[in-house]
Amino acid sequence: MNINSQISSHLVKILITSFFLIAIWFVSFAIFPENQIVKLDIEDPSPRTFIAPKYIEIEDIEATENNKVIAESSVKPIYITDDNSTLLVINGIADMFLEILEVRTLEENIEDEGDIEGNTNESEVLITTLSVGDQIKLLQNSIDFSNISINTIEALVIVSNLDLNDKTSYISLLEAESRKQVLSIMSEGIGEEDLNDTRRTLIKNPYSLSLPSELYLEISQVRLESAVAEIISENLVANKKLDQAGWDQAKIQARSMVEPVIIKFFEDDIVVSQGESVTYVQYQALSNFGYLSGASRTIQNAAVPIFIAVFLMIYGIFWRFNDSIWSNSNQYLLLLTLILFSSVFLRGVSYFSQQYDIEFLTYAVPISFVGIVSSALLNLRATIVIALASSFLALAGGGNLGLVAMGGLGCIQPAIFLSENVDRRELKQKLIYISLFQPVIAYGVAYFLREDSSLISLFLYAFLGALLANFAAFGSITFIETSFRLTTNFRLSELADRNHPALRYLEEKALGTFNHSLVVGTLADRACSKIGANSQLARAMAYFHDLGKTTNPSMFVENQFSFQNPHDKLSPLDSVTIIREHVPAGLEIAKKYKIPEIVSNGIKEHHGDAVMRFFYEKEKEYNANVDKDLFRHEGRKPTTRESAIVMLADSIEGSSRARFTKEDASPEKISDLIDEIFDEKINDGQLSNAPLTLQEIQKVRESFQESIEGLYHQRVLYPEITESDFSEEE
Question: How many domains is the chain built from?
Fold first, then answer.
């Protein structure tokens, strides 16, 4: 297909799709304009007083959320303590006290000048005790004490020097008291935001000290307590950090513990009074009661984007996935027709259920009719698209939410049990299962929407609605496929019926060909089943593939019964011309009997353009340079798995019949024959256009092996019956 043809095809489908959507729009808003009892939004004044027809519970989402916010805000921050910070503070204080001890004395190295001979002696260390004033000056110049007051430095130096003179350990006791205070302060935890306040509080209100009383005779207790507080304050750091993850988790848990706020409306309660501004809870109650069923202003405003979205979904999915429906105009037209029917049907049921208060219609809606038709005549992708599109369109047009949900799910559920390859017998068997499944869907929808419906009546209405739809679908499928000129398994089953006029004609005119076609059909059917191809289609192709032989049956070996082969008197080229004609002749007869194109393709493709080897080899006996192409069929190479299998089955059946009338059909000989035919077709390129994988070809070969072995199995040789046998019976 050239680019212009592709563009033209796309434009046609766009126009057709747009036409159908416009039709749906017209029906939704023109034919059913009053799509709800009242048009009302949240915060609108109520046009009248509404009474609750039944008991219902509605969650007040706003109140519930407020309670959750309150619960969340009540959760206090969670902190974690860093033990390393405490150790850091203690080490810093220890370093400062060590430095106080170290400044008490000064160490100097003194070297001897040496003896007369010039030898030098080792240096000596001279230790000098510094004055209190010098000690204070050294500490003032120290980095560690740069922020410490002179009063504190002086107090600590005095205590240090008391130890030096009196051989006491007051300074060690001070350090121990400092460490004890640090442990007490840090155990409570200090956050970064509290650090400065903690320092100021400590300086303002120092901790009391447990020191020997005689020390206080030298220096006041208050002064020492202030000194220790200042030393601690200088080294103090934050050791408490916010555990954000733990805090967030605690908030989430607090929210989850909040019970939803449920507003209860009992039967005959006033839901909203006339003129009252409608709240969220009241709006939900009115919607649930059916007072607001259909298109609210919000849905009406969303109608346009919904229609656009549906258009893009229909167009995009089938084009993107190159679905067979996209290239089949009849199937695509059926798809759009089913979308139109189901969306309008849902919209109409919604309208009448509201206007006449027919509650059971929501669950008894026979929408599975569409799902059955789509599953049987189209495919799974089409069924899903129809369900989604019709639901969205019905909702945009003002459909009841529960009804729309039932419509969508009810349309999809037949696809669980059916496929596009279902035949009439299988469909009839599964209709009851489809009918029983709809009540389950109805219960799920009612539970989700909190409908207070009787369980028994709900199941009964849903079952009866589904049963009605299903048998209506069964009865109308033939009409639908005929109207849309579709070839389904229903149609294929009818074509494969031996009482079909074309097959009766074949049997009458060419009995040998008829029997050959039946065997080919069996071979092809079994092989297709092995690889998941359409066995019904393959059987129908096989039955009609040699229909053209009826014009001149005696020219084909299977119809030559105990008389001379007419080809013995003809040249190979003349024979080829006659044999070649059975393909176009078969196509003409197929048209006469209205055989669908998908089946008549088996006539066109069962030989491909293969060489008629018998006549070719015969001609080579006289003309070694003969052109092989003169001996080819003028058909088309197989384009489907089914027609390729029919080609192989046709060759194998004919070759095995010719070969095994002259010799025994052992499994080894059958295998050799099949390999020979497969290799010939593959090497000649006859399968190059068929979508068969190597794995599928191997399965087809194994199927043919089993079938031919069964056809030519060894039989028991029974003894001959003599006249004496009859006399004995008498």
Answer: 4
